[in-house]
Design goal:
- The structure is a homodimer of 319-residue chains.
- The first copy, chain A, is of the alpha/beta class and 319 residues long.
- Chain A has three domains: 44 residues, 434 Repressor (Amino-terminal Domain) (Orthogonal Bundle); 122 residues, Rossmann fold (3-Layer(aba) Sandwich); 124 residues, 3-Layer(aba) Sandwich (Rossmann fold), CATH 3.40.50.2300.
- Helix content of chain A is 45%, strand content 16%.
- Chain A has 13 helices and twelve strands.
- In chain A, the strands form two sheets. Chain A has a six-stranded parallel beta sheet, sandwiched between helices. In chain A, strands 7-6-8-9-10-12 form a six-stranded mixed beta sheet, sandwiched between helices.
- Chain A starts with a helix and ends in a 5-residue tail after the last strand.
- Chains A and B meet through helix 4, helix 5, strand 2, helix 10 and helix 11 of A and helix 4, helix 5, strand 2, helix 10 and helix 11 of B.
- Strand 2 of chain A pairs antiparallel with strand 2 of chain B, so a sheet runs across the interface.
- Chain A binds a DNA duplex (30 and 30 nucleotides) through helix 1, helix 2 and helix 4.
DNA sequence: GTACAAGCTGAAACGCGTTTCAGAGCAAGC
DNA sequence: GCTTGCTCTGAAACGCGTTTCAGCTTGTAC
């Protein structure tokens, strides 16, 4: 627990000199540098990160705000973030919100209290208007569309992405298409619904299945689907996990994919491949990486960045 | 950016009094308390967490060390950790190691530099001997077996757990059993191999498939399996994800489960259910919660805890 | 011989909240 | 009347690394 002053005393130099040695400042004579280094070794000096943080005002930490840490949908984002953070010697404080507004606020309060240098928000229920009030306390980057110009954003445009997916289904000859959403009122779900009505002639409210978030939900969907009078011939999911849950249960119930119903996933999680799931791959790892970089750069005076990435179709056997 | 001294000046009291108001200390007259509160409101005071941290010596943070943040196997652990952390107003700093020793060391160095109050290690390649050298800097809790008595541990005993799984297969009439491991030399894999040789009469080296970590690996395994001359009639996996990857590909290649080969998973991830996967459920969320509690309690002077939890069989259609 | 730059050094201030300690005022107990 | 104890208050020290600024020495340029 020796501190910098102990070292200074032991080496018979000033604390400034010790600090200079630690930070490899050139203006230290070889002799004193050596004395300091010896003292540090002898006393087992370890720099106190808390003091450093208070002194410099930089925490080397970002908070990552996301609804569920164990939802595989966020896995690739987080992976990209983690990799980027490592290269810049940054730490990630994970904050699980479960879509609760108070939790989102608590997470962004870390910014206010200087507990983190910036915030990366993967999904949120908070309005951008409210989010903007936190902007004065540090950079914020989101993975969603519609951010105001003060907030960095790297995302896929879910309207275009969904449009692309619907066209894949159309090209495969499907006209009667249903869509599966997570929360109906999230910005991305709203964009998806718009794309659905714009793109699909036979689109109808009854074929929008919303509230499906997990693979378990996907399993349940089979019953909901089978109980429909008029069924769509193809389903476009907004998560591979939900799609897989559906596939598994469908097989058990004798529903043949893609003959009875085609299935198109969304996100491109590796496990989809094992089951031959057709999907629209979203470059989530790239997004994670770019979100980190945006936040980092903005912190060092860089501009707000807003980037929109595109999805690509990964063919499988379910369409 | 007003600080406590600005408030004191504004309210015409000492900084001590301001601090007392902030911390709800009783010995403050109503009049001064009000003056201070008014000053805080007027100047928009926000407590600086960094200063608090330096002053109290407590960071309110634990580092969570795990190989891959996006590997679903760790999802439930992390979920349990996050929930417990929330109740104690603690933050989790996630550290992804990719099983690299230098990364594990860097993570535990946070402890040395007082950047976190404790460490929770979900998986590690570091020896317990080395880990013990970090113990002086704060509490450590691991999710693995074999920890020395200075290190808290909440885990499933993989020997017993694997034994239980092998008996499930035996009871279903399987004699020729193969096992699938992640890294062959990890402590849990070693325990699993021991259980395998102890429990299965026809056990053989060739039927130990190791190096299978992801669903993609599980998919690959089908080829490896099919190219065996003498094939086992049942496979016991050590991860549901790998098992699912196998199931998906097996179906595509016309390998019928469980007629041609039975499949038993391990961990109990929800998505397994959708595919009717038989599995041994590991109480990972409970473990996460308990690991947090152990670390927290130890920090406040509590004892080291070592707990072993058991797995339960979840029947499915693949055995 | 003078000026200016570069190398080296350390005292003091800074970031900011908490805690200790000393002291004043006042009421209750004997 | 005196002791004891509680309420209230603030100065100063503490946690600890960085940065600014002033000052000294030595070297180089003209």
């Amino acid at each position: 627990m020796a501190n910098i002053r102990d070292i200074a005393r032991h080496a018979n130099v000033s604390v400034t000199t010790v600090s200079r040695v630690i930070n490899a400042h050139p203006y230290v004579s070889d002799e004193k540098r050596e004395r300091v280094q010896r003292a540090m070794k002898e006393l087992g000096y370890l720099r106190n990160q808390q003091a450093l943080t208070l002194s410099t005002g930089r925490t080397q930490r970002f908070v990552v705000v996301l609804p569920y840490m164990d939802h595989p949908y966020y896995g690739l984002f987080v992976n990209g973030l983690a990799k980027a953070a490592l290269t810049k010697d940054y730490r990630l404080v994970m904050w699980q919100t479960e879509y609760r507004l108070d939790q989102e606020r608590q997470a962004l309060d870390l910014l206010k209290h200087r507990e983190v240098d910036g915030a990366i928000v993967l999904s949120h229920t908070m309005t951008f208007e409210e989010m903007t009030t936190y902007r004065a306390y540090g950079p914020i980057a989101v993975a969603t569309v519609g951010a105001p110009e003060t907030i960095s954003s790297v995302h896929v445009d879910h309207y275009t992405a969904f449009q692309a997916g619907l066209r894949v289904l159309a090209e495969a000859g499907h006209e009667d298409i249903g869509i599966i959403l997570s929360r109906a009122d999230s910005p991305s779900s709203i964009a998806r619904q718009r794309a659905y009505f714009d793109e699909v002639a036979s689109a109808r409210e009854r074929w929008i299945f919303s509230g499906y978030l997990t693979s378990e939900d996907g399993k349940q969907l089979v019953s909901a689907f089978l109980s429909e009078q008029e069924r769509p011939r193809a389903l476009f999911f907004s998560s591979d996990y939900v799609a897989l849950g559906f596939l598994g249960e469908a097989a058990r119930r004798g529903l043949r994919v893609p003959y009875d119903v085609a299935v198109l996933g969304f996100d491109g999680h590796p496990i989809g491949q094992a089951f031959g799931l057709s999907t629209m791959r979203s470059p989530n790892e790239d997004i994670g990486r770019a979100l980190f970089d945006a936040t980092f750069q903005e912190m060092t005076g860089g501009p707000v960045v807003q980037k929109s990435l595109t999805v690509t179709h990964i063919p499988g056997m379910t369409v």
